[in-house]
Amino acid sequence: MELKDNCGICLHSMLRKPVIRLLPCRHLLHDLCHQNRLRLQNVNQGQCHICRQDIQSTESVVRKVYKKHSVQDRKRIVSSANRGEDWVALSIQLNVPYKTAYQWIRSGDEVPLQKGGKKPKILTEEQIDEVMSWVEEDCGITLKEIKSKILLNFQIDLSVATVGNYLEGRVYRVKTVHHEPVTMNSDMNKAIRAEYVRTLNSYI
């Protein structure tokens, strides 16, 4: 078993809670899960939950600590490789693993890219204003029709959901009107429905 596996008792990840290794079988469990199980069994050592071997002792599992390298180290290694110098010797000197240094050089970025952030808009404000003018001219236009017009006029292929996001907060959305027939609630139809319910109740 490895830390990436789940605990054999609670079936949850072992990446966050304290973990122990059972000896001699060397299976891994959450420390708290193991203690609770021993309490329920009312025994001192008990058996391994996975292989049923008698547990002689336990040991704490020390997680590997990943070293974080500075941006300055990355800049020095990437710029050294760009100048054609011996970047391998420099990475050894800076205590940076070969694989990490190689990935930096392969990406070509001296500074790591920022994670997340706001994505740039696909449509410009002028294009959005033109889309709004289409809606004002024809209030019955659908999102699919707007999508087609955007593709035709701007050569930009957007999804219907993205078109809706652009219009969110700019226009009112009206649900489809339900046309009710005039005779739907006439006296005759009400009498027919009442008779139907009485007949239905007689069979219950």
Automatic annotation (TrEMBL):
Molecular functions (GO terms): zinc ion binding
Which residues belong to any copy of the RING-type domain? 7-52
Q: Which InterPro entries does the entry link to?
A: Homeodomain-like_sf, Znf_RING, Znf_RING/FYVE/PHD
> Keyword annotations for this protein?
Metal-binding, Zinc, Zinc-finger
Q: Looking at the record's lineage, which domain of life comes first?
A: Eukaryota
Which subcellular locations apply to this protein?
A: Nucleus
Native organism: Cuerna arida
Q: What is this protein called?
A: RING-type domain-containing protein
Q: Which GO terms describe its cellular component?
A: nucleus
